[in-house]
Amino acid sequence: MRPVKNTDADIKKLVASVKDFQNNDNSTLKFITLGDMVMSIDEFRVRFKNAPESKAYTGDKKWDEVIEDGRIKIQINVDEPSFGQFQDYTNELLDKVMKDYKEKTAIDFVKCGSGRQPSCGSGSHKTWMVLSAKPSNGLTGCSSYVGRWGDTTWRGTGAQGISLGKGCLYMHTMIHEIMHALGWTHEQNRPDRDDFVTIIWDNISPQMKSNFNAEKGGKVFGTKYDPMSVMQYSSSAFSTNGRATIVAKRGTVAIPTDAVYWSDKHINKGMTDDDAFEINNVYTLAEWCKDNGEEWVYGNKEACDGSGNCIKKGGRVENGSTCKSKGNRWREDLTTESVREATRTAGRTERPSTEARTTEARTTEETRTRSKDEDKGKDYAKGAGKIIQFIIKIIEIFLGDGSK
Ligand SMILES: [Zn+2]
Question: Which residues are catalytic?
């Protein structure tokens, strides 16, 4: 992802690389690059050109072929040599990312060949994700195909590369790129985004404008626009002049500034309750649990139809089955403070300083303590939010950041 740090040159490189790759490929499918997302042109037409609600987020590109013990098992692998000196770091980061997915959704990523885990593609597993700094499927930088494509035959099976190049080894970036592979686009692509944010087209570099289109065929499952989503860019992403490209409308929640976006807390907070909620609407085990005489912890209806009405939000199942009678731990008591503490701990881990984050970023972030997770769905834009925004503005002016 790296929306802010990516330059036009980086994006041009990705576009050229994917094009070049397609030209050397016998596949009849052709892809389009939108920022860090690569999707088929056919799917692009369905998602971005059709009427709202015309197609589910993931369509037929879900990763749900292996369901065991009340979990959707997805194999994942790290292309270790490609990460060089950062291979241990990448593995540790992936552990945190896997934990986040496991706690908040039914998805249980398993590292192929790790411990007693089967090797990639064994058993019922036909498709797996491979995190690589040098993927072989035309991707570069931080980027991912949208949905389950499998290997480069695009038939939905085999190893699907996800690119995490230089500067991509952050928890929220890894969650973000994996969420693309699971089928999601960006928060600012939501079909209803114009109700919440204004896109400042004049400030967006020409190369990146297509990345800010609204996904007319996208589903939002009854959620409100979520500025703290892992799928949300910062407010000045892909700016051609340093000024804002996405601005929250009056009365809605502010979009994270570059400083907030790259703060330790934001990088390490994991997916929001709404991110997890959306995943649980698509990657649901309501029927599976019912077939096994149990109830799915995230939803109590026989089947979830994507309306968002049958899914519970904000809980955690740290381990075990997500069907109720299998000794799982449904933790609605995981308080804001414990989430915050977990975030702090995660933030302490040393990571490669591929990008220097400024003192300004930290100072501003400490002033600003909002997070959708902490909020449990309350709209904090009103009152306190505005005051905080005002304080941030003062700090930014003081620090000479005239872009906001
Ligand atoms: Zn992205």
Answer: 177
Tell me what the mean pLDDT of segment 143-157 comes to.
91
Cα pseudo-dihedral 112, 268, 349, 352, rounded to 10: 80
pLDDT-based confidence at 306, cuts 50/70/90? low
- What's the 371 CA to ligand 1 centre distance in angstroms? 20
Fold assignment, 8-182: Collagenase (Catalytic Domain) (3.40.390)
- The 10s digit of each residue's pLDDT in 219-271 is 888 889 999 999 999 999 888 899 999 999 988 889 999 999 999 999 999 99
- Give residue-wise pLDDT tens across range 263-305: 999 999 999 999 999 999 889 898 898 888 888 888 865 545 5
Q: Are strands 197-199 and 71-78 parallel, antiparallel or unpaired?
A: unpaired
| 185 CA → ligand 1 middle, Å | 7
243 Cα to the center of ligand 1, angstroms: 20
**How many whole angstroms separate alpha carbon 76 and alpha carbon 160?**
9
Type and span of the H or E element at 73 = strand 71-78
* Ligand 1 centroid to residue 297 C-alpha, Å: 29
Instruction: Quote the CA–CA distance of 260 and 238 in Å, as a whole number.
Output: 16
Instruction: Tell how far the Cα of 209 is from the centroid of ligand 1, in angstroms.
Output: 14
Give domain limits for the chain: 8-182
Question: What is the token pair recorded at 147?
Answer: 């949905």
Q: What is the pTM of this model?
A: 0.76
Question: Is the CB of residue 266 less than 8 Å from the CB of residue 365?
Answer: yes
395-404: pLDDT as tens digits: 444 443 333 3
Residue 181: name the closest of 326, 49, 36, 325 by CA. Answer: 36
